[in-house]
Design a protein that fits this description.
Largest sheet: none
InterPro entries: ARM-like, ARM-type_fold, PBS_lyase_HEAT
Distance between the termini: 40 Å
Shape: globular
Number of domains: 2
Organism: Sphaerisporangium corydalis
Protein name: HEAT repeat domain-containing protein
Oligomer: single chain
Structural class: mainly alpha
Helix content: 55-70%
């Protein structure tokens, strides 16, 4: 069995952020759900390297699914990145992670990023919003999703529209 540092090194060595090798290593890290993996992912999120921050976020977004043993600490890390990071790839990854976590406490961060100037970030927000609206749906979150459904970027608008019709 590979160690956490070995799996992280394997994931980072795949230069394609959507690469098969990267995601196989990341999936193994997800299944671990232990403190060591959480600690290493959190460390990556504080890196000067955007690639490392993205990997850290990708790990945290599904770490220990479905139990999510570190959800409170994970949300703190992700909300901090949502408010402070300026890398488009990191912000997009944070929003996708929020969507995977499905926790309404992420909603304020998602609403803030739904107005971002970059369509990649707005796309991430469109994905995340329908998963973090809560039950019943938060009115401000629903309004943000409706705005994104009229976005000038077709991919953003389509994903937001889908989020409006899905339960």
């Amino acid at each position: 069995m590979r160690t956490v540092p070995e799996l992280i090194a394997i994931a980072l060595a795949d230069e394609d952020p959507d690469g098969t090798i990267r995601w196989k290593a990341t999936a193994v890290l997800h299944t671990r759900g232990d403190l060591e993996t959480f600690t290493e992912a959190r460390r990556l999120c504080a890196s000067d390297s955007a690639e490392e921050r993205v990997l850290g976020v990708d790990i945290l977004g599904e770490l220990g699914s479905p139990q999510r043993p570190f959800i409170d600490k994970t949300l703190s890390v992700l909300r901090y990145l949502a408010a402070s990071d300026d890398d488009i790839r990191v912000l997009h990854a944070v929003l996708i992670a929020f969507g995977h976590l499905r926790d309404p406490r992420a909603l304020p961060s998602v609403i803030d990023l739904a107005a971002h100037e970059n369509p990649t970030v707005r796309y991430g927000a469109a994905y995340a919003l329908s998963h973090v609206l809560g039950r019943p749906a938060d009115p401000a979150g629903l309004a943000a999703l409706r705005r994104l459904a009229r976005d000038p970027d077709d991919d953003v608008a389509d994903w937001a529209a889908l989020g409006l019709i899905l339960p």
